Amino acid sequence: MRKHLFYTLFLLLCYGNVFSQELTKISEPVFKVGEKLSYRMKYGVFTAAEANIRVEASDKKFNTPAFHLIAEGQTAGSFDFFYKVRNKYESYVDQNTLEPYFYTENRREGKWKHTDNVSFDYKDNKVTANKGAFTFKGKTFDFVSAYYFARTIDVSKMKVGDKFEMQYFLEDGFHSMGITYVGTEVVSCSMGKFNCLKFNPTIIPGRIFRKDSKLYLWITNDGNRIPVKAHVEVILGSITMDLQAATGLKYPLNPIKSK
User: Fold this and answer.
1) What gap in Å lies between CA 144 and CA 105, rounded to an integer?
2) For labeling, which of 90, 157, 182, 253 is most exposed (least CB within 10 Å)?
């Protein structure tokens, strides 16, 4: 259960922010080199995991300038004592299209370890990973680049009830996540109160979620488009993700001031 609680943190953070039908992004990224976001996930009243995602200049050379996107997470508190998790995901993406060139993951969860190195070939629509080659159609992303691309999507014409999908590669295969736009809402997190866009990602029932579990994600309705809070019901209780810190943002983060 502890392993799946931690993994859910990244489901909330990276998959929940996907909301494009035509995948039409605005003219430029809403983030820049130096941005860093920190999150904490709680299972009930207990802190279960922490995560940091950041943007760096690429230390690898590609045909065009690239961003180096990094997501790291680990268990915390008593969860870390009983089941230690240390995961790191990295993606190198084109600075203009935000489509990935190369993706790596290094996961250690208890005694289990997993690594992968994934290359994207858009000429032949092929992904090459440690376990072989996989073909795809249309736009596709990895675990980390999906999150950053989604933040740049034009949502100005979105209507309540609109449903969208996005394709990504993870764990030796392609997956898609359906998202429904719920509307706007004011939400509080550790950094204050914000005007947000609210989304309802599709949940697949299983070891973590009930058939009637609800997952909601709140994203700042400003130039940054960053997730500030998420809440999901699980088989036993619920999990909440909360933004703890945000630095190096491209645009000012403007919480609602108390009267």
Assistant:
1) 10
2) 157
